[in-house]
UniProtKB/TrEMBL annotation:
It comes from the Eukaryota. Its main location: cytoplasm. InterPro entries: Signal_recog_particle_SRP19 (IPR002778), SRP19-like_sf (IPR036521). Transmembrane segments: none annotated. Residues 98-110, 126-142 have a biased composition (Basic residues). The keyword Ribonucleoprotein applies. Keywords: Cytoplasm, Ribonucleoprotein, Signal recognition particle. Residues 95-142 are annotated as: Disordered. This is Signal recognition particle, SRP19 subunit like protein. Gene3D superfamilies: Signal recognition particle, SRP19-like subunit. It is found in: Cytoplasm. It comes from Aduncisulcus paluster. It holds the Pfam family SRP19.
Length: 142
């Protein structure tokens, strides 16, 4: 379903049905919304994708014990993947809204900043003291 993947890298449907960087969580929520049985395994992933794509795997039960599809609308994996696009896009937007950090409050004029240990002892501050930094070549000889 990844729009950036090629067919050689494992994309099984056309680009018009793909989504930009879908996560396993988004796919899991989408499949649940369609009413299919599925299981999210966050610690699993395809071996050649370990650095490229977000981790996670979704195991979906498409067929019953008798070998017949559980849902007649999704007779195979490709039919399911083609139907997932609008749901994945919806869940992607929802998850982005949940993950957005809250806005920081601006301090008012005249309000003093509380000193931290780093401010007092100079921890993590740069040693650069300013100046022009010309070194030996920049100095003029008299």
């Amino acid at each position: 379903m990844h729009k950036g993947a090629t067919i050689q890298k494992g994309r099984v449907i056309g680009l018009e049905y793909c989504v930009e960087e879908p996560t396993a969580e988004e796919i899991y929520l989408s499949v649940k919304e369609l009413g299919l049985e599925c299981e999210l395994e966050e610690d699993k992933q395809h071996p050649c994708w370990h650095c490229i794509y977000p981790s996670g795997r979704v195991k979906i039960t498409l067929y019953g014990e008798d070998g017949k599809p559980l849902n007649e609308e999704f007779k195979n994996k490709r039919a399911l993947l083609k139907a997932l696009k609008p749901f994945v896009e919806k869940h992607k937007a929802e998850l982005i809204m949940k993950r957005k950090p809250a806005k920081k409050e601006k301090k008012k004029k005249g309000e003093k900043k509380e000193l931290t240990e780093a401010d007092v002892y100079g921890v993590g501050q740069s040693r650069h003291r300013g100046g022009k930094g010309k070194g030996k070549r920049g100095k003029k000889k008299k």
